Amino acid sequence: MDVDKSAEQPVVGPKEGTPTPEAQTAPPAAAAPPNPDLEAYNQKWTTVQNDPQDFNTFTALLGIADRLEDAEKMRAAYDAFLAEYPLCYGYWKKYADAELRHGSAEAAAAVYERGVVATPYSADLWAHYAAFKKGLPEATPDDVRGVYERGLAYVCTDFNSHGLWDKYLAFEGEQASTLHVSSLYCRLLACPVRELDRYYNSFKTYVGPLAAAQVILPHDFDSIRVRLEAEAAAKAAEVEAAAKAQAAEAAAKAAEAAEVKKEEEAAEGAEVKMEDAAAEGDAAAAAAAAAAAEGAEVKKEEGGEGAAPPPPPANGEVKAEEEAKGPAAVTDDDIKQAWMKQQEAVYEATRAELAKRRPFEEAARRPYFHVKPLDGVQLFNWIKYLDHMEARGEPTATQTVYERCLVACANYPEFWQRYVRYLEARGDEAGAKAALDRGVLVFCKRRPEMHMFAAHWDELHGDVAGARARYVHLLTHVSPRLIEAVTSAANFERRQGDLPAAVKYLRDLTEEERSKEGSRIYPFLAIHLAHFLRRHSGDLAEARKVLDEALEQCPGVRSLWEAAVHFEELAGGPEAVARALDLYDRATAPPAEGTTAAVAGKSLPERDREELSARSVDFADMYGSAAQLKAACDRHAARFMLPTTVTAEARAATSGGKRGHEGGAAGAAKAPRLDHGHHHAPPPPPMAAAQPAAAAHHAMAAGHHAAAYGAYGQAPAAAAASAAAYSQYYGQYGAAQQYPAYGYGYSGYGY
Prior knowledge:
Elements: H1 21-25, H2 36-50, H3 55-67, H4 71-84, H5 89-101, H6 105-118, H7 123-135, H8 141-155, H9 162-174, H10 178-188, H11 196-207, H12 212-215, H13 218-280, H14 283-302, H15 315-324, H16 332-363, H17 376-392, H18 395-408, H19 413-425, H20 429-443, H21 448-460, H22 464-478, H23 483-495, H24 499-514, H25 522-537, H26 540-553, H27 558-571, H28 576-588, H29 597-600, H30 606-623, H31 626-639, H32 644-654, H33 658-670, H34 718-729, H35 734-737
Helix pairs in contact: 2-3, 3-4, 4-5, 5-6, 5-7, 6-7, 7-8, 7-9, 9-10, 10-11, 13-14, 13-15, 13-16, 16-17, 17-18, 18-19, 19-20, 21-22, 22-23, 23-24, 24-25, 25-26, 25-27, 26-27, 27-28, 28-30, 28-31, 30-31, 32-33
């Protein structure tokens, strides 16, 4: 009999974590829907990683990052953006606000610190930082004041810094510190800011009802008091000296008058006595009287006891004596009035300076940074402003304007280069080096001309290794195939005496372009390399080989043939004329019979061959022998018996064009053929000249007069032909066209 053991066993529930049968059979929970913001973030992140200069996508990425709850993604987006655009002060504030939303005031403070280091001349960012610091519960007034003071150290004289000044004044007003407020006003009156007049009026209104001790700093108060007391003492001394002098003068006058009166009385008495004595015959009495008169004279001279006392002083003299007893005490009102006069003088001087700067400041309509280029008017205004400041000869003020200029013009290498040269001219080599690194490593890091300028600067200052490193970076990461960069690096190595390295730079790029079908710059590079070898290595054979390879690959490039001829002119030697005429022969030879249209299309056009042939006649006439001249004339006559315009009409007539036939017949009937006619053009320059031989037409054996074929135009001048050819066929790289300041004008191949 089977026993149901299940009844004997206790009922045990499912183990914890073990799904119940119902749960096992229940459908799985639906997956969370995808986050569209996260997908958009990832997409835009990939875009800006591939193209960091896509400003609009970058700002859209930051907007998405602000909506996400992922602090790491937010930080990654802002860090990448601000590494590319550190002068966008508004995004430093947004970054700090985002850190606050994620609950980290400490991280927000660190962001502000990074921001004011990256763009210290932004008054707005300093104002935001101070407001942030003020909002921290643990911040003291001195902490907030410290941020304001750090900001004013950079932007106090900024024309548009009134926002920061206003906030600082309001903050100090909240602290009820009249001394701090008045001292701020005093500093402000020395700064040529936009709102200077408003600040001066506010200053007078603020300090008017306050006592001197409330608005004047103690050391200024004491200094003014000492000065006023010294001035009062000096004035009292002057008054006292004047009073004494006046009293002495009055006493002298009174004594003189008394002596005169006494003398007159004594004289009258002596005369009376002498008369009486004479009448009585008393000679002794007369003698005594005479002695008495003589005594009176002596007393007059010595100022005896009989002198009359001086008259009492007048009222004015009494007042002067009272003032001379001691200066009156200097009052607080006296000190305040003197202080106000000082501030008024400062204001007037600053107002005059502001009048000189205001036209430049108001013309700078965009003083902040933006990726959009500045218009030419504003760029020219900054140039004139810098000229004005440099002419003033005030280094500190000029350097401040330079720094402000480099906010608005941060993407322009020309302004960075000018700043470096200015600092260097002042003897501040360390400052020049720092400015150079800022320009080349941060703001113009993708501009090849800035890297080349930095390399030149390093080389001039003896840092050859640093210059070489800059060229390597330029040709590896910035503009690997920019012609100007390659030639600049080659010339650098040449100056260091390393010709193999210099040639390698040129040869590597030349060979790279040679391997490309239809390269537009290969002919130019071949010309440059050939002339480099001729001038610096003296290897004419290798130079000719470079040109021959280029002519074989690009036979339809007229400027290449002209350059080859010019090369032989410069190379000189007994075979120079023969080599040049051989090149003319090869250039003007018609395609061989049976040549396919594709191959014939690579040759020179018939009009170019005709003009080069005419030029060869002039060349042989000037430099060659009689036999060489005859050979050139015969060759030209055989190949171009008729001008190309006429042969074109003939071909059109042969192809069945009735109009062309009639036109050709009419042209032939207008002027009969004249033997030994020729076309003349200006003769070519000497072989040593930098320009190729001038164009001319000769057809001596079976030539034709110009009047017979008026459409047969004169060949263009050599320089114009050369420039046009290069412009049409051998433009620089696309990257080089963005930097016209570094374009090359090889007019006539002036090597």
